[in-house]
Amino acid sequence: MHSYETNLTGTLSLLLYVIFFTTFLIFLPTKGAGGWSPLVSNKYQWLQIDLGERMEITAIATQGGYGSSDWVTSYLLMFSDSGRNWKQYRQEESIWGFSGNTNADSVVYYKLQHSIKARFLRFIPLDWNPNGRIGMRIEVYGCSYRSEVVDFDGKSFLLYRFDEKSINSLKDVISFKFKTMESDGILLHRKGQNGNFITLELIKGKLFLFINSGDTKLHSTNSLINITTGSLLDDQHWHSVLIEHFNKQVNFTVDKHTQHFHAKGEFNYLDLNYELSFGGTLAAGKSVPFSHRNFHGCFENLYCNGVNVINLAKRQKPQIYIMGNVSFSCSQPQTVPVTFLGSGSYLSLRGSSGQDEISVSFQFRTWNKMGFLLSSNFHQHSGEVSNYSKKFVYKHFFVTDFIFLLGAELNNGQWHSISLAAKRNHLSIMIDNDVTSVLHLVLPMQIYSGDIYYFGGEPSKFGPNNLSSSDFECKNPFGGFQGCMRQISISNKVVDLILVQQSIFGNFSDLQIDLCGLIDRCLPNYCEHGGECSQSWNSFYCNCTNTGYMGATCHSSIYEQSCEAYKHRGNTSGFYYIDSDGSGPLGPFLVYCNMTDTAWTIVQHNSSDFTRVKSSNRENPHTVFFKYTANTEQLQATINHAEHCEQEFAYHCKKSRLLNKRDGIPLSWWVGRTNETQTYWGGSLPDVQKCTCGLEGNCIDSQYYCNCDADRNEWTNDTGFLSYKEHLPVTQIVITDTDRPNSEAAYKLGPLLCRGDRSFWNSASFNTETSYLHFPTFHGELSADVSFFFKTTASSGVFLENLGIKDFIRIELHSPAEVIFSFDVGNGPFEVMVQSPSHLNDNQWHYVRAERNIKEASLQVDQLPPKSQPAPVDGHILLQLNSQLFVGGTASRQKGFLGCIRSLQLNGIALDLEERAKITPGVDPGCPGHCSSYGNLCHNGGKCKEKHSGFSCDCSFSAYSGPFCLNEISAYFGSGSSVTYNFQEYYTLSKNSSSHAASFHGDMTLIRETITLSFRTTRTPTLLLYVGSFYKEYLSVILARNGSLQIRYKLDSHQEPDVFNSNFKNMADGQLHHVKINREEENSDVDQETMKANSQGFTGCLSSVQFNHIAPLKAALHHSSLAPVTVKGHVAESNCGTLTGAESTLSETTHSFAGSIYYSPYFSYLTGLGEPLANAIRSDSAIIGGVIAVVIFILLCITAIAIRIYQQKSLYKKNETKRAENEDCAETALKTELTVYDLI
Prior knowledge:
mainly beta, Jelly Rolls, eight-stranded antiparallel β-sheet, 11 helices, 91 strands, 6% helix, globular, signal
């Protein structure tokens, strides 16, 4: 191994001249031949520079060997204060190495992102010219660094007493640096009255800032503030601390990682004494609610509100009291750590063979759950020690295996100690010096020490694939150790690892000696939205459970951004969580989505009932605050996205005025989310100061603009909707005019109602390949997600692109079935591709979502499985863009997109495509044609209708209602009730007639019918349906006396009626049955059985009745005044045909009747296999010769030939009113269920 070291007082074989400037210290290589080139080129070489004292290094530059083919292509930079315990410099949060030279002469210069304060530098080559050797010339740029330090021995501290007049209780700034090898200790403490205190404590290598404020008790959890940051701070390297307290704001910074805290209540005032201790406290445990120890280590440049505390202590100023032994130079512990980098790492050390006493101890720290720690080849036997599943494992292989579990949470990144001792057949293992948990074993054999101890792994020749029983008799099932070790001792002698590094003692592979390279990959925490971070040696992981987000970094919301988005996924009305800003910082919250033709978002508050008010006046006003289920920021985002928002306010008054002024101040007012007082009321506009009646001119007293201002001694009201979005929602109402005799008021504030989502349908049409929209630069340095809808007929095109100097991001349609997401963050171009099984240029809307974070990149198209690619473990992580964002094209105007882009969002922020398209040539705002993509959401015969912003379902010709024609129309029929629907008047109809009836029915000669209905009854016999014509042709559907379903029809007056029986079961069982009848291509006094069934009438439930495009039951219940329908008896709308979610999962029995044969038989009764069960009588009659005149629905009106019966074994959500008594058991059960129904 070869290395060179230089210092300021002389030179070695590499000649470096040292030149001092006012600001910079520069090392220049010689002008002649020279440079550093070791005799052997391998990864264990380094060049070390001693600057003589701590300096501040700001930049470095390298060249290759002069006039040679020797240069280094990549290297690491280390630094140290003492020449021991090195630390590796990192450019970014995950960039370790520097790119070097590509030839011998060019200079590669780096300005360090953060300067280094150190005395020693070490350059370690990683790669070099394969056709040459390692060769380097180096320049180091920097300046002098001055500091003052104090060293605490764990028992001492400084007590700083400051002048009361010089302290501002509302502002404090404390800054310093510290370094230590201890994981615990108090760094500063200040106590006060009533239990107030501020304490900064190092606990398990992290810094905790405790603040107890106000006059609350010491142990109150409401008053104790705990802010935590930093990690692995016990590494004997300098760490900076900055605490800023101004009013209620606290900024706590450790090594450039800042925690911000904004306190509430009386936090801005801390009743503290004028003493501040550093390094410990005088009265241990009496003033802080936690166990602690004093600090053992060094402070540097300690400032308190601009005062240099260490300088005061050195000059022995009276403000400083030195408690215990402190020194003003920092001691340098000589502990040498070693880093195990990978699965092939190991350290082998020789011991004394054949000894009957064995003693091995060491310390380790790691993040991994599993790893090999120690093994040795005992005489004739073997043993192995590993940490496995966060526990300590001892395993002995001989005839029988012994497994012992010791310790817990050993992979938490903290230093843990292990001591192993054996004598003859007695073995003991102790972890973390805990004598209470020592494992004592008596082995069935006597053991003697071997000659070699392996730490962290084994040489490959002893691996499981090449095991030599003579050398080693155990396999390693745990994998190599990744982490750090130190203080290794064998036979009670500490191993000098510097001798190992110099190849004087022992052997090793893939190690870094004299530094611990363990880093905390969870600092900073890249898990977003409260995701829990965990880590291993190479990576970190995010647990997104219960956060409402998903993905590698918990970046993407699992909820939609609005009720409009839920609606267009086919969701019906109900409670939903919405996330107004998607992947942004706002969390999800619960709302009610009312799905009508448009989607309404309903946000409730905490006071929705009428509230009566008495005895309020200016001095004692009635004030109410409204708290919503969402916070202010969430409400603002929801309102901004909505097309319209409103909130109803009802004010009932008796001698209580609203707008009348006393001394120029209104008697009542309200406050919105902008915290501005508003004096206009429901139905009015801002600054108008009127109520609804004042705008409409119909107030009860024309002299006033509100009914209540008439000040009458009788109840009246002013009710209306507040609809100015910028002022909503109402957060406070103040009423002051109810203290006069007989004066009283009552008010009610409705929920916040918002309609639509402007961003969901915001779109632009790109008409030429050279057209595009441009927006400001996209900032998504650590996490970036882009989502949008598109439709096109083009085979390719770029959806969007944003460029940087080297970085870029692009999403494009690469081919008709391929979407590619590509980007570069400095590690080279990166692509994720999704290939669709069908073409995407079908002029249908397709969804694209791309996400890039420091863990991975992913791309999803429609409902296809997302594709993802992992990011490099140690690479560049920041996406740095600086150009405009191009949408629908590129900066070069090539590969432009032809088609429509809609609902474009970047990190949850919607871009207004329509506004930008209005001023951009070649791009039009909006994009028609939504029904082609969303028409399938209209069910049960509903028709899709285009709207400017979306679509709606027209349910006019459907038996169902609702936004997607999914709501069943059901009714309860009382005894003797019926619904009659007249298709036309009772006279012979001519196609040439000019009457309205003729124009509507003249083309209604029917060649096919489709009838559907559901029923539920216990009565037999009963008539479900009768369809008759003027020519005495008819069809009836009845339940026979035995409960079987019969279809009776007569299409020829000279023949007897034909009858089909469905003898499946008794269908008058009180259960819900669905029936569908179809008749095709075929072409009447009522028979006796039909008359009998009709005479019994129908009692029960009918639902979803449909005859072709006519819904007679819906017409009777919803449009009785407009439709030609007659209702007889008691028919009440009900939900009796609606099934709950649980009921819908029950098993169903399905039977079908289908008329699919055009000729003989004219009607076919088919099983599930489609085979006819019975043949109908042939008829020479033509297709039904007359227009059907009357359809009477007594149970359910249905015509024709194929019937599907679905039996539901369930109950209804609500019951109907009891209509009859003394029924049989089944009918009694049905009546019980129908006890209550909607009477509204």
